[in-house]
Amino acid sequence: MRKTHLVGTWPGLSAPDAMTTALRRVGAHLLRMTDGETGDRAVWGSRTIEWLRANPDVELIHDGVYADYGTGPLFRVREDRTLDPRNLHLNYFHTFVESFPAFKYLRDQAGHSDIRFQVGLPAPLDLTMLAFGMDVAMSDRVIPQAWAQATIDQVNRIVGEAEEPVVFQLETPASLLAVIGAPDEAKEAVARQLAHDLHEIMAGAREGTHFGVHLCLGDLQHKALAEMPDALPLVLLANAMATGFPEGRVLDYIHVPFAAANKPGSFEEDWYRPLEALTLPPEVRFVAGFIHESITIEDHRGLLHMIERLARREVDVAAACGLGRRPDPAQAWDAMDKAIALINGD
């Protein structure tokens, strides 16, 4: 049965406010949800990057704010240090402990006790790109490995604390950008390597841990980092993620962007043609991120039909990125309403 997916953030004055809104609007159509990632968490990994200012292993080389891509602070590892995972401030466990009891109460009060709590995890490559620059992210293995170990430690702490299964969503615009930018003859190999790096995090988690993957083009200030010439990069990454997935862990879904922030997806069938090569196992849900504020529900129905026909499977429906990225909260509610209409066939 078709469902919808909330990538991570959506409008709300607080986590309880955001969760209450989501449960009221789309709760019957969700399999999982975060706490809305409100406040300073709405600017994705910036909260984690800001804590590098107090990290003894690094030094600030360029200060800035997150007004646009490339305008945030930039760091480097000190010459006499290495990046110690124990010095990296990841707030996943802290926010889980704060929000999980409220999530369970609100979820059960709303009558949707089957919804699982979702924890968003910016991928190590992406945190490296944000904090140290794209050149370092593409050339240095030690820094991403430090982020990876810190992430694994947080995941296992959460699993140990939770009284029920939690879904961890690995989020990676950088991986999609790397495949887009690779030469045509190297795209598949690049996708396999990037998937392998994410698999290592999943393999480090406790047996039975559930994961999802959010591929993204970026949505800072509701603008994308890049656009795709067609759907091939996301198909290559999705296939690579499902191939060689660590035993004993569960891949629940892969979410992919068909829109690019404020730009809706293409209406040209050739753009989606690579979906014919999608090879996800049937138990892994494929979440199509094509819901957009600027096109009609009739347009969405046409896109949904085309995506499902080419992918040869029913898909879940979603926006391309978090609904909290929109400049107007009404656009988030519009996306939720469109998701329900597509699910119900209205």
UniProtKB/TrEMBL annotation:
Protein name: Uncharacterized protein
Organism of this sequence: Streptantibioticus ferralitis
InterPro entries: UROD/MetE-like_sf
Superkingdom: Bacteria
